[in-house]
Design brief:
The complex is a heterodimer. Chain A has 21 helices and 15 strands. Chain A has helices at residues 36-72, 104-140, 142-157, 160-170, 175-202, 205-212, 217-253, 266-275, 284-317, 390-397, 424-430, 452-463, 468-481, 487-491, 500-512, 530-547, 558-564, 582-587, 592-600, 639-643, 662-667; strands spanning 8-13, 20-25, 327-328, 348-359, 362-374, 379-383, 405-414, 417-418, 435-438, 518-522, 550-555, 567-572, 575-581, 649-650, 656-657. Classes of the chains: A alpha/beta, B alpha/beta. Chain A: This is Dipeptide/oligopeptide/nickel ABC transporter permease/ATP-binding protein.
């Protein structure tokens, strides 16, 4: 599975209750195999490994001993020794003797043959029918699925024990028939699991792509679907094998299958032990014990094999070399080159912010030395590609870094508080009320089971001490603030009744509930259509002018940046590369990256010839080059660019760039 | 063309969704017609929910058509049986939006790339190894990537692999469903250039599905604009982009912000003025 694409959800409780602003974080710089679930998984594998090995060894030994007992057994299992009937363990009889003085160990091993063969018969039927029908049912759907589903419901509705008794009355004492029927009537358990997983896997894009490659359904199932089923199948099969041991034992105990006349079996030996419990309690220990041990071993082995199988597929899949888009980097100017003279005292002042992720191989810096200021009412855009660190930067301001991330340097002053050093309790008080977050996925912040109005009212009550009715009125007022037509009526709707654009307006209303001085909008329009995007951007501009809220807009879209922002912080590979007022930035970019990216933009590139491109790809944090991080892709690069860390330099008023050749960039 | 003027002809295509017994089906695509000549690119443009991907799926045979016809090289393939469909994959291939999901993470690049050959064994005698390295070269990758797993590659590289897979059987038509929208700006241009170059070299046709009119200008010969499952405008790229006739096309063009604050302010004011009139 691709750890990069799994959107991790960080949800931040604004109100302690059900109301939460959830942030659908882009997967953040997950280092190779460092995903939390994977490490948990490997720990559990370690825990299971010895038990799994012991179980496997026990089962193998039991199988070998049982199947070969006929050849090597030193004692005839039927040889009676009435003088030593019901004896306890001794050197001659390791597990004692039964009431006819026969050796219990040898009889158990011989009896094991019947059990093992029965289990194999039942499991084969169970697996073939369960997997086969389940995959076919899930893959083809439609009437095939309905027919198979109907049959499996029918089988599940049959009382299993009665069916088995009927079979035994037709084939008295016939183990094979019983076990085949047991496999058939149990197969719906496996069938349902495989059907469910198949239906899910079938939706995967790569399965669709394989079909479009022209593979036959059988090949698609074999190559792409079956490997994904391994985990659930293994668990079900081992559980069923344990069940088969018990069922076979029970029937044999009742004398219905493998009666004593056909030789020893575990079931009839337990029966015999039960008959003599009054005289000798020991006999029940080895006979019952072997059944219990075998059932236990099957269960433990199933777990171990499942974990190992899942691990293998994961480790093949989870080796991203590129850090999944580290959430946006914050842009800032370095302490050495503070952003231009601020006319107003800054609302937020970020200095030298550095964020690292703790990976198994040591800490990895995802964002380095970011500094910038946000004045009251100002809109700053943090722009960059995936992996540039723009989201990480924005998230770190709210203390919403993903699990392995932490701020390792710098500070972020807001209202006289250093956000990066604030304990979680105080940070929670700032979040939502003074600084609010707007997400890319509007729905992720809304609870599907509550009406929009009541969710909003709850957040309002969280921030102000007002009564229910007042909170309710304020909620409707907020919905009107975000320009939703008929706010009263919208308040009564559930989130699923909203369109994407309306949902984003509602989540903006949620963010405004605490009258924040600063809104952090993380790709707020990326999931929306272009016409809806224009409306939301218009709303953001409108809110700024009406409420005077400052905005940090995290985006990858240079058009969005140009549309709403006053100033831009351009990030590349975890660093700020350029910072300028947007009009200056677009008119005359002073960093090669900005310049080339703007040229490659299909909006402005001339039609006809090949589009201008930037060679290469955005490097992963582990592959960031020394010196200038853009150097390998830069047409202006010289030797000196690689030999030293490039500082941010002032190039005009309130303008910085991280390029020592910015003069040439400006003139070309 | 021996079979007619166009490589692909879609006529009055209707696709329904939701075949419930109680609910009436929703019409996702309503009487859509479009034609693609050999070596041409037709862009299918619209917002999400406009039915643009559904048209692509109907052409690929992934979604059944309720009525209308899909004709490929003179052959009516609207209701082609599964066997014929599989044979058609020699000529019609697809590249999807999400390069992360479209490659099986547990199979190497080579295993993924030979799949189309497996399906058409006997038809394509080229040894698989040579075919894989040729396909990788044609998308600008080297052969040594073949034995690695998709997780080792960036989005742009994976999209190149997905394109290489489509090229394995030398198709005549590739349905590209938002092939660049998951990619970074600096990578997007590389992939668009690659698609154009492949068209020049091999004469392949594209049905290019996208929501982004800005990239359409660079890749498409003709544009079909969809809204709520219906075609609202169709024409050459120049006509549609420079002189859009339908108000919806105008809105789509005007709503996308351009990366230039001064120009964008003017556009925005014009757009908002137009919106007030609407």
């Amino acid at each position: 599975m691709n750890t990069k694409r799994e959107r991790s959800e960080v949800s931040l409780s604004l109100s302690g209750g059900r109301l939460a602003v959830a942030t659908a974080g882009a997967p953040v710089a997950v280092p190779p195999g460092a995903a939390a679930p994977a490490s948990r998984r490997s720990r559990s594998r370690l825990r299971w490994r010895p038990l799994g090995l012991v179980s496997a060894a026990y089962l193998v030994a039991l199988t070998v001993a049982s199947l070969s007992a006929g050849w090597w057994a030193p004692i005839d299992p039927e040889r009676q020794d009435l003088a030593h009937a019901l004896a306890g363990p001794s050197a001659a009889h390791w597990l004692g003797t039964d009431r006819l003085g026969r050796d219990v160990l040898i009889r158990l091993l011989l009896g094991g043959r019947i059990t093992l063969v029965s289990v194999v018969e039942a499991v084969v039927v169970f697996a073939v029918l369960g997997i086969g029908l389940g995959v076919v049912s899930g893959y083809f759907g439609g009437w095939v699925d309905r027919t198979i589903g109907w049959l499996s419901d029918l089988l599940l509705a049959l009382p299993g024990i009665i069916v088995l008794l009927m079979v035994l009355s037709v084939f008295p004492g016939e183990t094979l028939a019983t076990m085949v029927v047991l496999g058939v009537i149990s197969c719906p358990l496996l069938l349902r699991v495989t059907r469910g997983v198949t239906m899910a896997v079938r939706q995967e894009l790569y399965v669709r792509a394989a079909r479009l490659s022209g593979l036959t359904p059988l090949r698609v199932m074999w190559r792409h679907i079956l490997p994904r089923l391994a985990g659930p199948i293994i668990v079900q099969v081992f559980l069923f094998a344990a069940t088969a041991v018990l069922v076979q034992g029970a029937l044999s105990f009742l004398g219905l299958s493998a009666p004593e006349t056909q030789g020893p079996s575990w079931g009839n030996m337990v029966g015999e032990a039960a008959a003599v419990t009054g005289q000798d309690g020991w006999l029940a220990v080895p006979t019952g014990g072997i059944i219990a041990l075998t059932v236990l071993a099957l269960g433990l082995l199933g777990d171990a094999v499942h974990d190992a199988a899942v691990d293998r597929t994961r480790s093949a899949a989870a080796l991203p070399t590129r850090p999944a888009r580290p959430a946006g980097p914050r842009h800032g100017s370095s302490p050495t080159a503070p952003p231009g003279p601020a006319q107003h005292p800054a609302l937020l002042s970020v200095r030298g912010l550095t964020v690292a992720f703790d990976l198994p191989g040591g800490p990895l810096t995802a964002v380095r030395d970011v500094s910038f200021d946000v004045s009251p009412g100002e809109c700053i855009g943090i722009v960059g590609e995936s992996g540039s660190g723009k989201t990480v930067t924005a998230r770190s301001l709210l203390g919403l870094l993903p699990p392995h991330g932490r701020v390792t340097g710098g500070c972020a002053r807001f209202d006289g508080l250093d956000l990066t050093a604030l304990p979680e309790r105080q940070l929670r008080a700032v979040r939502g009320s003074r600084i609010a977050l707007i997400n890319q996925e509007p729905m992720s912040g809304l609870d599907p089971s509550f009406r929009v109005g009541s969710q909003l009212a709850e957040v309002v009550r969280r921030h102000r001490h007002v009564g229910r009715a007042q909170a309710r009125a304020k909620a409707v007022e907020l919905l009107a603030t975000v320009r939703l037509p008929e706010p009263e009526q919208v308040a009564r709707r559930y989130p699923h009744e909203l369109s994407g654009g309306m949902a984003q307006r509602v989540s903006i209303a949620l963010a405004l509930a605490g009258d924040p001085a600063l809104l952090i909008a993380d790709e707020p329009t990326t999931a929306l259509d272009v016409t809806i995007q224009a409306e939301i951007l218009a709303l953001l501009r409108d809110l700024r002018s009406r409420l005077g809220t400052a905005v940090i807009l995290v985006t990858h879209d240079w058009g969005v940046l140009a549309d709403v922002c006053d100033r831009a912080v351009v990030m590349y590979a975890g660093e700020v590369v350029e910072q300028a007022a947007v009009t200056d930035l677009y008119r005359a970019p002073r960093h090669p990256y900005t310049q080339l990216l703007l040229r490659a933009n299909p909006h402005v590139a001339p039609v006809g010839d090949a589009l201008p491109t930037i060679a290469g790809t955005v490097p992963a944090p582990s592959e960031w080059p020394a010196g200038c991080r853009f150097r390998p892709r830069c047409p202006y690069a010289e030797d000196v660019c690689g030999s030293q860390a490039i500082p941010l330099v002032d190039v005009g008023s309130d303008r910085t760039t991280r390029c020592i050749r910015s003069e040439q960039v400006g003139t070309r | 063309m021996t079979h007619g003027q166009f490589l692909l002809e879609v006529r009055d295509l209707v696709v329904h969704y939701g075949h419930g017994r109680r609910r009436a089906p929703t019409t996702a695509v309503d009487e859509v017609s479009l034609c693609i000549a050999a070596g041409q690119t037709v862009a299918l443009v619209g917002a999400s929910g406009s039915g643009k991907s559904t048209v692509g799926n109907a052409v690929l045979g992934l979604t059944p058509a309720a009525s209308g016809t899909v004709t490929f090289a003179g052959e009516d393939i609207t209701h082609a049986p599964p066997g014929r469909r599989r044979a058609l994959t020699r000529d019609i291939q697809a590249v999807f939006q999400d390069p992360y999901g479209s490659l099986n993470p547990s199979r190497t690049i080579r295993q993924t790339l030979v799949e189309p050959l497996l399906a058409h064994r006997g038809v394509e005698p080229v040894p698989a190894r040579a075919a894989v390295s040729e396909a990788l070269r044609s998308v600008g990758l080297t052969e040594d990537v073949a034995d690695r797993y998709p997780a080792e590659f960036s989005g742009g590289q994976r999209q190149r692999v997905a394109i290489a897979r489509a090229l394995m059987v030398r198709p005549r038509l590739i349905v590209c469903d938002e092939p660049t929208s998951a990619l970074d700006l600096s990578i997007q241009a590389q992939v668009l250039n690659l698609l154009r170059q492949l068209q020049r070299d091999r004469g392949v046709s594209y049905l290019f599905i996208t929501h982004d009119l800005a990239i359409v200008r660079h890749i498409a010969h003709r544009i079909v604009v969809l809204r709520r499952g219906r075609v609202v405008e169709t024409g050459t790229t120049g006509q549609v982009c420079e002189a859009p006739e339908h108000p919806y096309t105008r809105a789509l063009l005007a709503a996308a912000p351009v990366p230039d604050p001064v120009a964008q302010r003017a556009r925005r004011e014009a757009y908002e003025a137009a919106a007030v009139q609407r």
